[in-house]
Structures are given as structure tokens and as C-alpha cells.
Write a structure and sequence with these properties.
This protein has helices at 17-24, 42-58, 76-87, 100-110, 122-128, 149-154, 192-205, 222-235, 248-258, 267-270, 291-297, 312-321, and strands spanning 31-34, 39-41, 66-70, 90-93, 114-118, 135-139, 147-148, 170-175, 185-189, 212-215, 238-240, 262-265, 304-309, 328-332. It is of the alpha/beta class. The protein folds into 2 domains: 42-190, Rossmann fold (3-Layer(aba) Sandwich), CATH 3.40.50.980; 193-332, 3-Layer(aba) Sandwich (Rossmann fold).
Length: 333
């Protein structure tokens, strides 16, 4: 029987160090994130995350204090998420589309005093969270009653020494869906990212530095956070973020422009991506023995498609929606 690999982070470990590691390996000028608002290299992402951590500290956020993030998938998410962890604070991402009562619950349950949200969500959040002593920070443009994230980041130092967090300290929270009552905050530790990347991402997906990853699941979900943030950044790969609802036309445009080598999606979305609508980069009918061959020999060739499904029937239904001849790996999550 083959031995199980055990991943052990150093005792003092901060999850944001995955950025520093990429700089140390000469990737400062490589694209880390492509998003609708802009692209960021690894060097730029580290600088912006450091500015975000310094801004949160200036706003009075202390170590282990929670910071609520109500953000779509743009560069603001990784910048603030990683910056908060670098400070030793605890980012708590939630969906901008959640119910008003849940936003009140998120703040009351997490004790967050700072809320970072897209400008379009600020008026709604100020209304539903009225009466609470909160500081609002507006991303993707200014908003009444909120601090402008971009303007404030520009005024901050672009260096921040990572907090000397323990590997078992809280790194971030993710709330459950609330299907059996109130959403519950699930605590993730600083070493958790390292473990999932070195086990699932490396040993199952085979993620590599030359990969481009794109997930239709949003970053505020555990599935999307791994696929489109921790996995690519851990390996020095590139993440592709798409804001707004994952509509077929939008997804096809992203696939054509960014040519991901690993595409994470769900069966229901494949219903809208009929085989004859897949862009030429997926090259229907071409069979390859492995994704590694595609990555080395034909960067515009078929992609690995990771289908998020709950049961075997969903796998089979989804499989029929994917263009014949694609290299596929189906993973239950």
C-alpha cells in the first residue's frame, strides 16, 4: 500500500505567504489574476494585499478580528482577502446576493466591525445593517457613507510583514448555506490552504505553474475559493475571475479570451453550453492522452473540465453536455 503524504506547515505560518513564495521563485512579473476590472501580476498582488492589510490596521482591525467581505469576483476580493490574513485578521466572504436577514446575522455572529463591499451593494447593506457601529469600505467605485477602497489603498504602504500566526490560528471563515437553520460560520485555519493544495490540487488535479484556472463557482464558496484563488496562487499559476452571474455567453467569452487549461463548472451550467457552442479552443473531436500533453504541446487545445456534481446521474447528464473528445476529470465535491 502506498504511503499517504502528510503535509505539515511550519508551526508559525501565515497563509498569505503563498504570495511571497512566488516572488522568491521569480514570478513577480507573471500574471496572478485576470479579472474584468484589471489584471494583477504576483508582484502587484502582493503590494496591493499589503496595502489592504495596512488599511485594515488603520481602521482599527486587530489580529483575529473578523472582516466581512461582500464582494463579487474582481481583483478586490483576493487583495482584501489576502491582506486581511496577512494582518492576522480573519476575512469572512459572503454572497452579495444573500438575504437581508442573513447580512445582519453575519455581522452579529462574526462581530465584524468593518464591511468591505462592492459599491453597488453599499446602499442595501447600510440600510439592512442600520443601527450597528460599522465602517463600510467601497470597492469598484465610491459610495455614499463608505470609504473608497482604491483611494485609500493608494495612500498605504505597499509592504506589510505577515503576522506571526500559528498554523492552527483562524485564517478565514466561510458560512454554510443555512439549509438547516441559520448559516453557520465554518472556521478555516492558516495551514488548511497548504493542505488542500498539496493533496487535492497537486495529487488529483495535477495543477502546475503553467496552468490557467477558471471556475464558474464564486470565490465566497469553498469550491470557488480553492479553484480560483488558493490552487492557482499556490502553484504560481494564473486565476481567471468573472464578475456577475455565470451566464453562457459570458462564460464562452471568458473561455475564448483567457483559454483556461482547467475549467471548473457545474452540470446546470453545461446545459447552457451545448457542444456546438464551445469555442474553437476546446477543439471537439481531438483526443489526447493527458492534460499534461495539452499543456506542453498545445496551449490552445482541449482543457481539463472539472464538473462539480452531487451524484453519478449528474455526472452522466453533464458528460453528454460536454463536447465529445474533451479530456475530462469528474470530481465529486
Amino acid at each position: 500500500m502506498q504511503a499517504v503524504n502528510v503535509v505539515a506547515a511550519p508551526e508559525r505560518f501565515n497563509a498569505s505567504l503563498l504570495l511571497d513564495r512566488n516572488i522568491d521563485r521569480g514570478r513577480a512579473g507573471k500574471a496572478a489574476v485576470h479579472a474584468v476590472d484589471r489584471s494583477l501580476t504576483y508582484g502587484e498582488l502582493l503590494a496591493q494585499a499589503s496595502r489592504a492589510g495596512n488599511l485594515l490596521r488603520a481602521l482599527g482591525v486587530a489580529r483575529e478580528e473578523r472582516v466581512l467581505l461582500v464582494l463579487d469576483d474582481t481583483t478586490a476580493f483576493p487583495v482584501v482577502f489576502l491582506g486581511a490574513m496577512r494582518l492576522g485578521a480573519v476575512p469572512v466572504p459572503v454572497s452579495p446576493l444573500d438575504k437581508a436577514d442573513n447580512f445582519r446575522h453575519f455581522v452579529d455572529d462574526s462581530y465584524a466591525r468593518v464591511v468591505v463591499a462592492d459599491a453597488g451593494s453599499i446602499p442595501m447593506l447600510r440600510e439592512v445593517l442600520d443601527g450597528r457601529d460599522l465602517t463600510f469600505v467601497s470597492a469598484r467605485g465610491p459610495a455614499e457613507g463608505a470609504i473608497d477602497l482604491e483611494a485609500e489603498l493608494a495612500a498605504q504602504d505597499d509592504e506589510l510583514v505577515p503576522a506571526a500566526t500559528h498554523r492552527d490560528d483562524m485564517a478565514f471563515w466561510l458560512y454554510s448555506s443555512g439549509s438547516t437553520g441559520r448559516p453557520k460560520g465554518v472556521v478555516h485555519l492558516h495551514h488548511d490552504i497548504e493542505i488542500t493544495c498539496e493533496t487535492y490540487a497537486r495529487q488529483v488535479l495535477g495543477v502546475r505553474e503553467d496552468d490557467v484556472l477558471f471556475s464558474t463557482t464564486k470565490l465566497q464558496h469553498a469550491y470557488g475559493l480553492g479553484n480560483n484563488l488558493s490552487f492557482p496562487l499556490h502553484f504560481g499559476a494564473t486565476a481567471v475571475l468573472s464578475a456577475g452571474p455565470p451566464k453562457p455567453d459570458t462564460l464562452l467569452a471568458v473561455l475564448r479570451e483567457r483559454r483556461p487549461t482547467i475549467f471548473f463548472s457545474a452540470p446546470r451550467l453545461h446545459d447552457g453550453l451545448a457542444p456546438d457552442e464551445f469555442p474553437a479552443i476546446l477543439q471537439r473531436g481531438e483526443r489526447v492522452s493527458s492534460r499534461r500533453q495539452v499543456a506542453n504541446e498545445n496551449r490552445g487545445g482541449p482543457v481539463t473540465v472539472i464538473v462539480h456534481a452531487r451524484d453519478a446521474d449528474s455526472f452522466r447528464r453533464s458528460d453528454r453536455q460536454i463536447a465529445t473528445g474533451l479530456k475530462r476529470r469528474l470530481a465529486v465535491v
